[in-house]
Amino acid sequence: MEIELLQSAHRLAVAFAIGLLIGLERGWKARSAEDGERRIGLRTLAVIGVLGGISGLLTEELGGLVLGLTFLALAVFFGLVHAAQRNTALITENAGLTTELAALSTFLLAALAGLGSLALASAAAVVMSIVLSYKSTLHAWLRQLEPEELAAAFKLLLLSVVMLPLLPDRGYGPWGTLNPHVIWWMVVLIAAISFVGYFAIRIAGSRTGVVFTALFGGLASSTATTLNLARLGRQGAPHYRLFAGGILLACGTMFPRMLLIATVIHPPLLMLLAAPALTMALLTYGPALLLLLRTDADAQSGDLLPKNPLELLPAFSFGALLAVIMVLGEALTRWLGDAGILGLAAASGVADVDAITLSLARMSEGDLAATIAVLGIVIAAGVNSLVKAGMALAIGGRGIGLRVAATLGTAVMAGIAVVWLMEGWPG
């Protein structure tokens, strides 16, 4: 009995805190108003929080009708108060219902806490308070949003939120290698990087925007980021150093990322993979930083923006290429047996490094020698780097492509040389 009482008190305390948190934000907005002029303030929302918590507790005992009727009564009350204040000119004609809706949301979140979902209710209350406090900023962003940018956002949501969950997450086609969910996820990822890169440049300016896009995209997919930045670089040809540096920054991020993935799956690989991975990373990051520092900081971001915030054709093309690589990689493995592991690593590296890194790290926990796993991972990274160099040259032009190719080519040769020396090849 005492334990149940303590649990109920804890839930009510969280419900009260939720009301105080949202009430603090609403009260701060109206802090200059005189007493009696505030429509809904700190004390009112704190009481609503307690009311919601009590309703949640009673719902467990008496059923959901209690919660529903209490919420309905509260909604009707706020509706009548709002109408009365409008009729008596206590609020302006343009006044919104944000505070009333915040109060109703506070009640529901407090009720959720009363029902025991404390973490979810608290997190939602924090997020709601943040959104409410950024009214001016959000409205300013909305005023600056162009029609094509809003349409691009809706298209990206259609691709990711609507279509992606509907695709089956299992293999089809030859040997069951074609996974629609995985392929479409790459399409969404490339489109998302293009979208984020567009707004990064638009909001933060040319150099900062490209650096942000490179770091963000490099953590997700350096190949997709290279595709996007090379395409932007052809449009902003005079600023080739900026985009070459951004591509190399994204490409350099791939090496520590694959080291982390392999180490998490099979920790003994750290000692073998660290030297080649870090060597390639340093040889890529160095020229990237030099190129970015030599970039003209006065480059106008508007000159570098693509006409379309969401480029879908490159994303679909890359998805088709990934499907071909999936089939080719499986074919090499089946036709060549164990000897096809390195061939599979090379074929997989054309489109992605993470998948083959994860696979080889897992295989090294069994019968596959750790040295072969490391060699396969380095080969995949090398092939992927050379493919990105080719993409930069073919799409971005000579100014970007030659700098990227020279840097990545040097890094790949150095990484393979480190593995060669470590393994004592030949002989």
Short description:
The chain is 80% helix and 0% strand. It is mainly α.
Task: List the keywords.
mainly alpha, 0% strand, 427 residues, 18 helices, single chain, 2 domains
Arithmetic mean of pLDDT = 79
In total, the number of strands is 0
Largest sheet: none
Derived from helix and strand composition plus strand pairing, the structural class reads: mainly alpha
- Which strand-content bin applies to the residues? under 5%
- Given the C-alpha coordinates, what overall shape results? elongated
Radius of gyration: 28 Å
Low-confidence stretches: 298-303
Give the domain tally.
Answer: 2
Number of helices: 18
Give a written overview of the molecule:
The structure is a single chain. With 427 residues, this protein is an all-alpha fold. It folds into two domains: 2-141, no CATH class; 145-423, no CATH class. The protein contains 18 helices and no strands. The termini are far apart. 39% of the residues are buried. Mean pLDDT is 79; it is low at 298-303.
Topology at a glance:
Elements: H1 2-29, H2 42-62, H3 64-87, H4 98-114, H5 118-133, H6 135-144, H7 147-166, H8 180-204, H9 206-220, H10 222-235, H11 240-265, H12 269-293, H13 301-304, H14 313-336, H15 341-349, H16 354-363, H17 370-396, H18 398-423
Helix pairs in contact: 1-2, 1-4, 1-5, 2-3, 2-4, 3-4, 4-5, 7-8, 8-9, 8-10, 8-14, 9-10, 9-11, 10-11, 10-17, 11-12, 11-16, 11-17, 11-18, 12-17, 12-18, 14-15, 15-17, 16-17, 17-18
